[in-house]
Design goal:
heterodimer, A: alpha+beta, Ubiquitin-like (UB roll), DNA polymerase, domain 1, five-stranded mixed beta sheet, 5 strands, B: alpha+beta, Aldehyde Oxidoreductase, domain 4, 3 domains, seven-stranded mixed beta sheet, globular
Chain lengths: ~150, ~725
């Protein structure tokens, strides 16, 4: 039995403790907003926050997460998340949309650390999040737009 | 994908009666209810009051466009909703869209001859331009008629504005108020479409995509998210070589893992079926399979390219185009000969969502949930495998995490995997068949490798007097159902398109093709033939301009005098990029222009050389002429994304084979563009009154050659081997 705290809610799940968080979220807990893209922390589609830090759920075993604060796209909240999602909608960032949960979780993580990021800051924080539709141009614009609406 | 002709659809105009026939016949198949659940045609009619096969109006006035055109990110749902909303005079906020599939009589794509439902060839907007506008206009007429009867006023005195139906005497109603009465009226057959001056939504810069909110909150449902009661997950072990087969397998270790339900032989390999995805993936690692590799492809990509290079001089070519007398022109004394060859790798589509399908069989009916880009083919595939009639196969259309052509696959590989697992497990429980990234990468159906040999002759004034373009590579269409219509006189049009349609006026011009064979399956990849022909022709033109000591824009203009739309975008992009003025210090520019799928795109890439010698793409300027700009926001997005998709491919991506084995498994080795490599993109849309053409693919072709030409301007190096970062390109 592994205890996971996801979006403020406790889950006790009886699965292989080596199961990556990605599959525990998707197949056991039923939160499917976090996406599978590569399985090896190479694309960022599975990005969630663990204790506030963007983390690749596809390579993070649930055995390492007991009593850690896990936040997924379904539960992400706060000023940065609101600003990022509003900017995403205002600029119509997504195309296929599949990577965007991960993009947003990385972008929110960036703004929590760096409220007014430069293009280089954005490149540094977002390079691990692949978008095959190449919505990068709007992602960059949207992060700047979100930052502009935040204090600091 | 298939470059069938969206400009001359068959039939030329939709049979208006057939737009609405679907209601009476109960032909609304596979409609998804508001909660994403399947509702039967009858239930849909009762609960949702479908107006017809192409749109549905709910009692709450929500207008749902039933899109025959698959949404894979390119904006087809938003585009078709724009057409319906325009003619319906709906408010944009009341518009929704969902996919429908399974009835080619209603949903056949005119661009594919009308008998096949499918999405590709950038044909959704041009192919459906009339059909969905007529659907909206017909529904509007019936709503107005219902209001006229209810209010006892002449229909001509009723206006519809932003979803509200009004009469000057103070009557007012919503679509939801009127829909029940309207749906019972006879269907008008003399509906007139608006004139362009009456448009308020078509061409509007302010329409947002319909799916942005769901895709910004994790709520959008994809195939990977489908959950059915009792559903099990399957992963399939595929042969390590193309053409290899299962000889034997030992499942004992895999079956010993808790959570594994079954291990079964299927058509294309061995499947592990488990309670969850992780267990299935883990158990597959424990599976022992012996493969029969006797009939497999064992050549490497280096071997293949060496063969192609050889064939280019010794092979027999089929002629795709032959103007004037090329050999005589080359032989003429005084002609200056320029030659160059270009090499293109296999490319994977690598959509973010690895391919998958969910299948269930109950009460004699097969249901398939997937990214159905090719519904007619998948319905027939499911029916054939199960031995049931096609009408017993119900397709549920999910949006997909990308495609770039991969989900329209004539051999239906991923659907076959899912259905054969269902069969092998006795069809007792629903199955979700999921490929991993490594499965997806190794599954073939690549953009083919090609070798291009070009030579040209310049006269003393530096004019091109002869041009010979030879393409060597595999055919996409051979061996598929499209062979008969797409392969003419030995020439698969998709191998040479873009080259055989070279727009430049050159008196002696020959394009020919040597088609090669391999067991490695190949497929259309975003922009199909133009993904390589635009590169070779537009880089070669640049080489000729340089040899002739002429400006690359002026050199092109001189040969495009009778090509106003090529010229239009070329001039527009040159103007917006400030081509006439010197580039800022440290910035170098390259230009390219290319028509694909009847859309004209010119691009300028601006690059600078990084201190480490690498190239940084700073800015892309795009000019596009796609006729009437239905939804400019979507057009801009497709141009931006097309630039990024292409830059990643030419700079970084290749599938390579060593003794037949695919060497790339994941994004560490199959590299794609990342955000730090993405330039700023400016998109300029040419005002036009021409019939609209598609935008999903045409942004891709000019980006690579424009970049290569900019790299030449910066470094003096011509990049003739792709990708730029490959060892062979670096040492060339």
């Amino acid at each position: 039995m592994v205890r996971l705290k996801v979006n403020g809610e406790m889950h006790e799940i009886d699965v292989d403790p080596e199961m990556p968080l990605l599959w525990a979220l998707r197949d056991v807990i039923g939160l499917t907003g976090t996406k599978f893209g590569c399985g090896h922390a190479l694309c960022g589609a599975c990005t969630v926050h663990v204790d506030g830090m963007p983390t690749r759920a596809c390579v993070t075993s649930i055995s390492t997460l007991t009593d850690r604060e896990i936040v997924t796209i379904e539960g992400v909240s706060g000023a940065e998340a609101k600003a990022v999602q509003a900017a995403w909608e205002a600029l119509d960032v997504p195309q296929c949309g599949y990577c965007q949960s991960g993009q947003i979780m990385s972008a929110v993580g960036l703004l929590m650390q760096v409220p007014k990021p430069t293009d280089d800051d954005i490149d540094g924080a977002m390079t691990g999040n692949i978008c095959r539709c190449a919505t990068y141009h709007r992602i960059r614009q949207a992060i700047h737009q979100a930052a502009a609406t935040l204090p600091g | 994908m298939a470059p069938l002709d969206p400009i001359n659809p068959v039939p030329a105009h939709p049979r208006r009666r057939s737009i609405l026939k679907g209601v009476a016949a109960g032909l609304v198949l596979g409609a998804l209810g508001p909660a994403g659940r399947l509702i039967t045609a009858q239930a849909a009619e009762a609960a949702q009051m479908p107006f017809n096969a192409y749109l549905r109006i709910d009692p709450d006035s929500t207008v749902t466009v039933l899109s025959s055109q698959f949404e894979m990110g390119q904006g087809s749902y938003t585009g078709l909703a724009t057409l319906v909303a325009e003619e319906l005079d709906a408010d944009w906020a009341q518009m929704r869209a969902e996919g429908v599939a399974g009835n080619e009589k209603l949903y056949g794509n005119p661009a594919f001859g009308g008998a096949l439902q499918g999405t590709g060839g950038s044909s959704s907007t041009p192919g459906m331009w009339d059909r969905y506008r007529y659907a909206g206009a017909t529904a509007r007429r019936m709503l107005v008629q219902a209001a006229a009867q209810a209010w006892q006023v002449p229909a001509a005195d009723i206006v519809v504005e932003r979803g509200i139906v009004r009469h000057a005497a103070g009557h007012q109603a919503t679509f939801g108020d009127l829909v029940q009465a309207a749906a019972a009226l006879p269907v008008p057959t003399d509906v007139q479409l608006k004139t362009p001056s009456q448009w308020t939504l078509i061409g509007s810069e302010t329409l947002h995509r319909l799916d942005t909110a769901a895709k910004s909150t994790g709520r959008q449902q994809y195939t990977i998210d489908v959950r059915l009661p009792g559903m099990l997950t399957a992963v399939v072990a595929h042969p390590p070589l193309f053409g290899a087969k299962v000889k034997s397998f030992d499942a004992s270790a895999a079956k010993a893992i808790p959570g594994v339900v079954d291990v079964v032989a299927v058509a294309r390999g061995v499947a592990v079926v488990a309670k969850d995805t992780w267990t299935a993936i883990k158990a597959r690692r424990a599976l022992q399979v012996e493969w029969d590799e006797s009939g497999a492809e064992t050549r490497g990509t280096d071997d293949l390219m060496a063969e192609y290079r050889q064939l280019a001089t010794t092979g027999n070519a089929d002629v795709a185009r032959n103007d004037g007398d090329v050999e005589a022109a080359f032989a003429k004394s005084g002609a200056r000969l320029i030659e160059a060859a270009y090499e293109f790798p296999y490319l994977a589509h690598a959509p973010m969502e690895p391919l998958n399908a969910v299948v269930r069989f109950q009460d004699g009916e097969l249901e398939i949930w997937s990214g159905h880009q090719f519904p007619t083919v998948y319905q027939q595939t499911g029916a054939k495998l199960m031995g049931i009639p096609p009408e017993k196969v119900k397709l549920h259309v999910l949006m997909s995490g990308g495609s770039f052509g991969r989900r329209a696959v004539p051999d239906a590989d991923f659907i076959v995997d899912a259905v054969t697992v269902l069969q092998a497990t006795g069809a007792k429980t629903p199955i979700r068949m999921q490929w991993t990234r490594e499965d997806d990468m190794a599954a073939g159906h690549y953009r083919p490798m090609y070798y291009h040999a070009l030579r040209a002759a310049l006269d003393e004034q530096g004019n091109v007097v002869a041009w010979h373009h030879r393409v060597v590579g595999q055919s996409i269409m051979r061996g598929t159902a499209f062979e008969r219509s797409m392969v003419r006189n030995g020439v698969d049009g998709t191998s040479v398109e873009g080259g055989s349609t070279l727009p430049y006026r050159i008196p002696n011009l020959k394009v020919d093709l040597i088609t090669t064979d391999s067991k490695t399956p190949v497929l259309w990849w975003r922009s199909v033939g133009s993904s390589h022909t635009a590169y070779s022709t537009e880089v070669f033109i640049d080489e000729l301009a340089y040899a002739a000591k002429r400006d690359p824009v002026e050199f092109r203009r001189a040969m495009l005098k009778d090509r106003p739309r090529h010229l239009g975008v070329l001039n527009l992009v040159a103007e917006k990029a400030g081509w006439e003025k010197p580039a800022p210090d440290g910035i170098f520019r390259g230009i390219a222009v290319h028509e694909s799928f009847h859309t004209f795109v010119a691009q300028v890439m601006e690059v600078r050389v990084r201190p480490d010698g690498g190239i940084k793409v700073v800015r892309a300027i795009v000019a596009v002429d796609c006729g009437v700009a239905v939804n400019p926001n979507v057009i801009r997005a497709q141009m931006e994304g097309g630039v990024g998709f292409a830059l990643g491919a030419v700079m970084k991506s290749a599938i390579t084979l060593d003794k037949g084995r695919v060497q790339e498994g994941n994004f560490d080795t199959y590299q794609v563009l990342t955000i730090d490599e993405m330039p700023k993109v400016e998109v300029h849309i040419m005002p036009s009154t021409e019939r609209p053409t598609g935008v999903g693919e045409p942004g891709v072709p000019p980006a690579g050659p424009a970049l290569a030409n900019a790299v030449f301007a910066a470094t003096g190096r011509r990049i003739r081997i792709l990708p730029f970062n490959s060892k062979r390109a670096q040492s060339a």
